[in-house]
Amino acid sequence: MKKIVIATKNAGKVREMKDAFAHLPVEVVALSEFGQLPNAIEDGETFAENAAIKAKFYMEKTGCACLADDSGLEVAVLGGRPGVYSSRYAGYNAEDWANNQKMLEELCIADVEESPANYRCSLCFADTDGTLLTADGRCDGVVRKIPHGKNGFGYDPYFYTNEYAGRTMAELTMEEKNRISHRGRALRKLTQKLEEHLA
Ligand SMILES: O=P(O)(O)OP(=O)(O)OP(=O)(O)OC[C@H]1O[C@@H](n2cnc3c(O)ncnc32)[C@H](O)[C@@H]1O
Ligand SMILES: [Mg+2]
User: Fold this and answer.
1) What does each C-alpha distance from 38 to 5, 24, 68, 190 come to in angstroms?
2) Who's near 179: CB < 8 A, 6+ residues apart?
3) 26 by DSSP, 3-state: which?
4) What is the pLDDT of residue 4?
5) H or E stretch including 53?
C-alpha cells in the first residue's frame, strides 16, 4: 500500500487530513513517526509556495511521498493580515491564544467589532518520483471579538461561518468543518488528483 506522510507539525491539521484519507487505499503516516525533524523554512510569498517548500523538504527528509498544507486567515479590515504569517502573527512559535490576542488588538486599533474574513489553504503532494500535485481551497466568514466553541484549532473560535449561521468554526464537529472549510475543499480536489496519480 502507498505510504503518504502528512507533512505538518500541526496536530489540528493532522486530525482533519487523516479523516479525508480514510476512504483511500493508502497508509497515512504522521511526520512525528520520523522522530525530531528540522522545520522547513517557510519563506514563500504565497500559501502555494510554502506548501510546495514543505512538501519537497519533508519528502527529501523522510524518503516518502509527502502531503503538506500551508494555510491562514485573511481579515479584510486588516488588509488581508495575518495571511501567510498566520502561525507567527504574534512571533515565531507563537501559540494559538497569542495569535488570537494579536488579532483582537489589531481589530481594536482598526476600531471595528467585526470584519469579513476568509481562510485559505494550499496543499502540495510531492511524490518520490518528482510528481507534484496541488490544490487550493477557501472558506468565507466573519471574525468577531467574542469567541465561541472549543473544537478545531487556531483562529476557529473567532471565525463565524457563513454556512452554519451564527456558529463559529470551533462549534462545528470535524465532519461539519471538513464539509465547508478551506482545507476540506482543497482536500477533496487533491484526493481526486491523487486517485488518478495512484491508479
Ligand atoms: O507549517 P505546519 O507544520 O503545517 O503547521 P503550522 O501551524 O505552522 O501551519 P502554517 O504554517 O500553514 O500556518 C497556518 C496557521 O493558520 C491558522 N489556520 C490554518 N488553518 C486553520 C484552521 O482550519 N482553523 C484555524 N486556524 C487555522 C493557524 O493559526 C495555523 O497555525
Ligand atoms: Mg508553519
Assistant:
1) 15, 29, 15, 26
2) none
3) strand
4) 96
5) helix 47-62
Grouped pLDDT means (10 residues each) for the chain, 199 residues: 94 90 89 94 97 98 97 98 97 95 98 98 97 98 98 97 96 96 97 92
Pick the atom of ligand 1 nearest to 96's CA.
29
Nearest-ligand number for the alpha carbon of 7: 1
Q: Which atom of ligand 1 is nearest to the CA of 182?
A: 23
Q: What is the model's pLDDT at position 153?
A: 96
Taking the domains of the chain in order of start, what are their residue ranges? 2-198
Question: Per the structure block, which three cell numbers stand in for 66?
Answer: 509527502
Residue 70 appears among annotated catalytic residues: yes
Query: How do beta strands 26-30 and 2-6 pair?
Result: parallel
What's the whole-model pTM score? 0.96
User: Distance between CA atoms of 101 and 120, rounded to whole angstroms?
Assistant: 20
Which three cell numbers, joined as nine digits, stand for 26?
A: 493508502
Q: How crowded is the C-beta side of 99, counted as CA atoms within 13 Å?
A: 23
Identify each DSSP E strand in the chain by its residue range.
2-6, 26-30, 65-75, 114-126, 132-144, 159-161
Any ligand 1 atom below 6 A from CB of 81:
no
Q: Is the CB of 88 within 6 Å of ligand 1?
A: no
C-alpha cell at 190: 487533491
ipTM value: 0.98
Q: Does domain 2-198 have CATH number 2.40.50.100?
A: no
